[in-house]
Amino acid sequence: MSLPARHGVGEDHARIVTTRADEGLRPVVGGRARVASWTVPSNVEELFAPPAAIAGHPAVRGAARIADEVLAPHAAAADDPARGVDPAHVAQLADAGLLSVRIPRAEGGHGADDRVDAETVELISGACGATWFVTTQHLTPQGMSRGRLTGLADSAVVVCPAGQRYRAGLADASTLAGIATSHLRRPGAPAVRAEPATGGGWTFTGHADWCTGWGLIDLVMIGATTPDDRYVFALLPATERPGLRAGPEIPLAVMAGTRTVALDLDGLQIAAEDVLFDVDGPAWRAHDLARTANTTPASLGLLRRVLLELERVGLGRERAEAVELAAHLAELAADRRAEVYALLTDVPLGVRTAERTALRGEITELTVRAAHALVAARSGSAMLLTSPEQRWAREAAFHLIQAQTAPLRAAQLAAFGAGTPLRRRTEIDTAV
Ligand SMILES: Cc1cc2nc3c(=O)[nH]c(=O)nc-3n(C[C@H](O)[C@H](O)[C@H](O)COP(=O)(O)OP(=O)(O)OC[C@H]3O[C@@H](n4cnc5c(N)ncnc54)[C@H](O)[C@@H]3O)c2cc1C
């Protein structure tokens, strides 16, 4: 196959593309990629371009600008534990209302819908996975502080005082929150137990393996299991205190600059006014399965970014197979993305959960495949720590396990096996 004739294809162009890719070129919203003085039509970009009303929304324009000018150039540093996510960048996102996209304008948000929100997340995560991951923690406590979570029956929740206390700061993200809750998904004995204490409070004891953003967040939401199968969520200042100790930063293969620690809870006293939600166990588990079945726009943002770069590397280095593969995978990805957003915006949470789970499994597998295809297309220089391709491959792996549930794991493993039906070999010929 020969490359389509395009302006600017050749070694000079390759150098420009490579430099910009290393620095992190933002996927331009709305149709055409700008590469130095050339204009290169991008099939991938056109497939992912949102409708004009979304592309022109102030939140999307703000996200595109910050992603391009602030986050992408810092992404390698944010990935590095010695430097890490820059608190000033988190503050810029908050100030631009990008941690409050769906919050009403009167409370400091954009009052936008889910699709606009998803577009901003795609742009942010495609620019810097680590900064996206620190900031995404905020959204669950922010939602809970408003007294209800979409898809969770009001009757399953006792709404407690901490939400009202922190609601305003969480809404406009002037107060940033993190979470330590994924241990609630594990089967077996609870990792963090909540025992009733006098005065309506609780005593938390146990170990939470994961809490991202320690040192960057103002508040931490900790989930614990009660003896009668309920979950209590406390919202506290994110600082050590008697009964609460944070471990050292966990050495990580990805998201290493996100200041992720474990928390030890040793008889931590939780006052009644520090409780956010007290929720029925089965209802919470059902809600969590429904919620986590949705593909995260962050995975789609990385997929979009990686496919754009696959196309650019192919064009810049005259590797026709890369251009062809980028076009093929982008068509598939754009189709699945449309399904994801239709389910997100048009179908109530809790409906078509199996379909959502299968779709998320397929998309996370596709993201890993696309990221590895980009490594193959870029070749050895993809392995330089100064090259973004190796980081994107690690981020793609991270999207497999982020908020992973047992059904999602099964869907991912099915997706990994789908292209190659298992065939048992009866005999191996070692002579060839
Ligand atoms: C970089 C990163 C940041 C994360 N940040 C958060 C966060 O801020 N808040 C949150 O709630 N969740 C966070 N998670 C958890 C993430 O959502 C879970 O990885 C996912 O839900 C899978 O759960 P698991 O770790 O329990 O799985 P598994 O790997 O299946 O864990 C199974 C076993 O491994 C052990 N184990 C798991 N993690 C650790 C650990 N860190 N140290 C020692 N032993 C361990 C457990 O004891 C358990 O028996 C983070 C994960 C990663 C990788």
Jot down its keywords.
single chain, 432 residues, alpha+beta, Butyryl-Coa Dehydrogenase, subunit A, domain 1, Butyryl-CoA Dehydrogenase, subunit A, domain 2, Butyryl-CoA Dehydrogenase, subunit A, domain 3, 3 domains, five-stranded mixed β-sheet, four-stranded antiparallel β-sheet, 47% helix, globular, disordered N terminus, binds flavin-adenine dinucleotide
Gist of the model:
By secondary structure, this protein is of the alpha+beta class.
The bound ligands are: flavin-adenine dinucleotide
Amount of beta strand: 5-15%
| Total helical elements | 15
* Estimated helix fraction: 40-55%
Biggest sheet architecture: 5 strands, mixed
Q: How would you describe the shape?
A: globular
Distance between the termini: 32 Å
- Mean pLDDT over the residues: 90
Structurally, the number of domains stands at 3
Sequence of secondary-structure elements = HEEHHHHHHHEHEEEEEEEEHHHHHH
The CATH superfamily of the largest domain bears the name Butyryl-CoA Dehydrogenase, subunit A, domain 2
Helix-and-strand structural type: alpha+beta
Rg from Cα:
23 Å
Tell me the strand order in the biggest sheet. Answer: 3-11-8-7-4
Give the tally of β-strands: 11
CATH class of the largest domain: Mainly Beta
**Which fold name is given in CATH as the topology of the largest domain?**
Butyryl-CoA Dehydrogenase, subunit A, domain 2
Unreliable residue stretches: 1-39
CATH architecture of the largest domain: Beta Barrel
